[in-house]
Design brief:
This protein is an alpha+beta fold. The chain folds into four domains: 2-135, DNA Polymerase III, Chain A, domain 2 (Roll), CATH 3.10.150; 139-202, no CATH class; 220-291, no CATH class; 302-383, no CATH class. It has helices at residues 7-14, 69-74, 80-85, 144-147, 155-172, 269-284, 296-325, 334-343, 353-365, 370-383, and strands spanning 2-6, 28-33, 39-44, 49-54, 58-59, 63-66, 98-103, 106-111, 114-118, 124-125, 178-181, 188-192, 199-202, 221-229, 233-235, 244-254, 260-266. The strands form four sheets. The chain has a five-stranded antiparallel β-sheet with strand order 5-1-7-8-9. A hairpin with a 4-residue loop joins strand 3 (39-44) and strand 4 (49-54). The longest helix has 30 residues, at 296-325. It is extended. This is DNA polymerase III beta sliding clamp central domain-containing protein.
């Protein structure tokens, strides 16, 4: 399955494919699933190669996608600035980014949920794409002192020298490959091979970016997501008039994904610390991969849950006094049942049956006698 591939990225990578019919397996874009989600988009003609990572792509198996001209024309989205201004196209075409999918061996371009192009079959080239990773140079082999001197150039200037080299080749009827000779942090010398009648000078751009391969190349998902819990501290995350207490849970799934953070707030420091310690104990067992789903409701109840526990404790105390006062009367007596029901606070409607059962069991364990616990159980059944 291949879908949700950025059609613009596909079109850009397709410019690096081969046009040699004898190497048909290089005449398309190689779409390969990434271990952390998304896909690699790779194209090469044997002399140059471009590798792009598409985070939004959905790909379950690698395939070489053919690049007919009508597909590439349909793959071009409206300019980003035009889409941001919301300028409507005069011909009524959709304005959103265009996406590529391969369905039943047909390449389909869609935009804003509408199909704008459907290519003919087959969309997948039956061949074996070469191991493109073997051609990626190892920058670590270059001494750090030399890597720090690698200059950066403006794309427009590089394009201009490329056009100049093509013009010189036509004029002198020879090949004139463009050679850029780095001279440290000073200007670079641009030479045209086999053409000694011209040269150029190219000023580098100041760049603080690291000279390393992008992180997505060898990024792998963690065997177990990394979960970090910040200490309890005073905060005001919900914009309350009075400060609250809370902590933050940060989950990281891989070297490539950004950390995901969730904040939990409580009205009292004691409540926040109880939830914090309970969560730390669960994470210490290493049996959970992230913040457990079954644990989130108990934290999310917050102040309302704690207030309900206080009301329940007071109601249980009233019921115990009622039982002691009428110990010799049958529980089923209507007047006694009414008195007990009035003394019991109703259970909150938002509580799940699991939480209700756990709270009831905890309340029974605090009672001094089994008979009283059994009587309270009957009271809960009658009240229900």
């Amino acid at each position: 399955m291949i879908r949700n591939v950025s059609a613009d990225l596909f079109r850009i990578v397709a410019a690096y494919r081969s046009t040699d019919d004898s190497r048909f397996y290089l005449q398309g874009v190689y779409v390969q699933p990434h271990p952390c989600g998304g896909a690699y988009l790779v194209a090469t003609d044997g002399h140059r190669m471009l590798v792009v990572y598409d985070a939004s792509a959905e790909c379950t198996e690698a395939a070489i996608i053919a690049c007919p001209s009508d597909l590439l024309r349909a793959a071009k989205s409206k300019p980003v600035r035009q889409r941001r201004r919301g300028t409507a196209a005069q011909d009524g075409e959709p304005m959103g980014p265009r996406m590529l999918a391969v369905i039943e061996d047909q390449a389909i371009i869609s935009c804003d949920g509408f199909e704008v192009h459907r290519g003919g079959a087959p969309a997948v080239i039956d061949g074996t794409f070469p191991d493109w990773r073997r051609t990626v140079p190892t920058i670590d082999a270059v001494p750090a002192a030399e890597r720090s001197l690698s200059p950066a150039f403006a794309p427009a200037y590089l394009e201009a020298f490329g056009e100049t080299g093509r013009a010189l080749s036509e004029h002198f009827d020879t090949s004139a490959p463009v050679r850029i000779v780095s001279c440290g942090q000073s200007a670079a010398l641009v030479l045209f091979d086999n053409c000694r009648e011209a040269f150029g000078v190219l000023m580098p751009m100041r760049s603080m970016a690291p000279t390393a391969l992008p992180a997505f190349l060898d990024a792998r998902p963690f065997a177990e997501p990394r979960v970090q819990v910040s200490p309890v501290e005073r905060s005001n995350v919900y914009g309350r008039d009075s400060d609250s207490w809370g902590f933050t849970v940060t989950t990281t799934r891989s070297e490539l994904h950004l950390p995901e953070a969730r904040q939990f707030a409580f009205s009292t420091e004691a409540a926040a610390k109880r939830a914090y310690m309970a969560l730390r104990k669960k994470l210490a067992k290493r049996g959970v991969r992230a913040l457990p789903e079954k644990y989130r409701p108990a934290i999310a109840l917050g102040d309302a849950y704690l207030e309900a526990l206080k009301e329940r404790a007071a109601a249980i105390a009233d019921a115990r006094e009622a039982f002691q006062a009428v110990e010799d009367v049958e529980l089923e007596a209507p007047w006694r049942r009414a008195m007990v029901v009035r003394s019991m606070a109703p259970l909150p409607a938002w509580e799940s049956p699991v939480i209700v059962a756990a709270a009831t069991e905890a309340a029974f364990r605090r009672l001094p006698a089994r008979s009283e616990a059994a009587a309270l159980a009957n009271v809960y059944r009658l009240a229900a």
